[in-house]
Amino acid sequence: MIKMMMKKMNWIRDDSIPCLRDSFYSINKIRVGVWFEMVFIVTVMLVMMIDQVTKYYITKNFFVAQSLPIIRNVFHITYVQNPGAAFGILKNKTLFFIIISIVIVVLILIYLKHIPSNKKLLRFGLSLQIGGALGNLVDRVKFGYVIDFLDFRIWPVFNMADMAIVFGVGILIYEIMVVSEKRA
Fold first, then answer.
1. 10 Å Cβ neighbour count for 94?
2. Mind telling me the catalytic residues?
């Protein structure tokens, strides 16, 4: 009975020899999984850190609405306090954005558990999205608004967290449209 259970659990192969190769494979699979989790966590933390450090610098060195031309009429550093979302929509709905941000982060984390470890690019894109969402969430909780400062004169002012979210969404679109089509 015990021998049969061990065989089912793949501890024994050929009725007598322990299957060490499968054990090593499982251990290596765990190591690779842990490594991917660490890369994911480091990416999230780096995005948040870069976002928060740049926003801190802006708040300490600029006053609200101050603009510094880097390339005149093309790119400026402009300190903006954004109480809404992109393009200034839904102004002063801070609690709504806090709840939405938390829900989105939780949903991405749940989705992440179902992504195979070989989907490195997709995992990286999701880590960018989570890092960006958490970076803006920190602002909303701390100040009630998001600090924006990257100003390409033809587009609303944005920040590093917004860039990470957009790059993450771009990677997600690439994975869905290009990579999945190659497999089909």
1. 18
2. 148, 162
